[in-house]
Write a structure and sequence with these properties.
Blueprint: H1 7-16, E1 20-24, H2 28-41, E2 45-50, H3 51-57, H4 59-73, E3 77-84, H5 87-95, E4 100-103, H6 110-126, E5 130-135, E6 140-141, E7 146-147, H7 157-167, E8 171-174, H8 195-204, E9 210-212, H9 220-228, H10 241-249, E10 252-257, H11 259-275, H12 282-305
Parallel strand pairs: 1-2, 1-10, 2-3, 3-4, 4-5, 5-8, 8-9, 9-10
Antiparallel strand pairs: 6-7
Bound molecules: glyceraldehyde-3-phosphate, 1,3-dihydroxyacetonephosphate (13P) and zinc ion.
The site of glyceraldehyde-3-phosphate has 10 residues, from helix 3 and strand 3.
Length: 311
């Protein structure tokens, strides 16, 4: 099976009340851990590449690793550009075989966001590629952008219809209180998401797939392991899983997960070195890291996303 777009995945997910996991990939072990879990559970997958991942691992290496995963798993896999920030970057990924791109114009004015997004949609659709746009700004740190909590803003539901109609996007990322990274809420703060905004967006865009960024749960077990074995992470709080399940049962069809993968990998490697301080073969410590990623992704698929058996 060749790479697929997310079109059919989202149609089924919307109707079925579940979501597809969009996992960030940066190297072979991450791709293997994710795709091995998805194969065992027969889950559809979106593998997403940020511009930072592309700089780190190189476009060709990543696309060839994803092609290998398709051969090994036989799963429908969509290869997506995460947080594309320019037309040129989106074009390069479209020309280079991606089946989906995000153009993140959320830091521009409404009109400038529409103009940039429309430009990407025109090129992408001419090449059979789907596009995710973004309205509203999430807090947190991405490779190129650091948005403070004060500069973040919820999506205005009154703007979504016009944005989707004028840009032609295939899915829309919205800001309802999630944020990027491991520190989503302050210690003592009760995690809260604006489900009223999501419900209003759903009402204005019936049947249209919504995307949730910054959706890692920041699983306490991994943070505890990191700190037990020499790490020093301050209180890290993520999105509670029951909120993600609720979002998946609504219009959210794509749930983005990166930080949880990083924590799973780092926890396993820290533990490995603490227990085996004299070892130096990368295969020895990358193997438990890959296994931890597989365990995490299996948990997400079965207990959070609800996409088990939907491939
Ligand atoms: O939302 C951003 C993703 O977590 C990717 O992070 O830009 O550091 O690769 P990155
Ligand atoms: P997390 O940092 O919560 O994993 O979010 C990842 C993300 O939104 C990638 O685009
Ligand atoms: Zn994101």
């Amino acid at each position: 099976m060749p790479l697929v777009t997310s079109k059919e995945m989202f149609e089924k997910a919307y109707k079925g009340g579940y979501a597809i996991g969009a996992f960030n990939v940066n190297n072979m072990e991450i791709i293997q851990g994710i795709t091995e879990a998805a194969k065992e559970l027969q889950a559809p997958l979106i593998l997403q590449v940020s511009s930072g991942a592309r700089k780190y691992a190189n476009h060709t290496y990543l696309t060839k690793l994803v092609e290998a995963a398709i051969i090994e798993t036989g799963l429908p896999i969509c290869l997506h550009l995460d947080h594309g920030d320019t037309f040129e970057l989106c074009k390069s990924c479209i020309d280079g075989g991606f089946t989906s791109v995000m153009i993140d114009g959320s830091h521009y004015s409404f009109e400038d966001n529409i103009a940039l997004t429309r430009q990407v949609v025109d090129y992408a659709h001419d090449h059979g590629v789907v596009v995710e746009g973004e309205l509203g700004r999430l807090a947190g740190i991405e490779d190129a952008v650091n948005v403070s909590a004060e500069d973040a803003s919820y999506t205005n539901p009154a703007q979504v219809q016009e944005f989707v109609e004028r840009t032609g996007v295939d899915s829309l990322a919205i800001a309802i209180g999630t944020s990027h990274g491991a520190y989503k809420f302050k210690p003592g703060q009760k995690p809260q998401l604006r489900f009223d905004i999501l419900a209003e967006v759903e009402k204005r865009l019936p049947g249209f797939p919504i995307v949730l960024h910054g959706a890692s749960s920041v699983i306490p077990e991994f943070v505890e392991t990191i700190n037990k074995y020499g790490g020093n992470m301050p209180d890290a709080i993520g999105i509670p899983e029951d909120m993600l399940r609720k979002a998946a049962s609504m219009a959210v069809c794509k749930i983005n997960i990166d930080s949880d993968l990083r924590l799973a990998m780092t926890a396993a490697i820290r533990q490995y070195f603490a227990e085996n301080p004299a070892h130096f073969d990368p295969r020895q410590y990358l193997k438990p890291a890959r296994e931890n990623i597989k365990r995490l992704v299996a948990h997400k698929i079965t207990d959070v996303l609800g996409c088990e058996g939907k491939a």
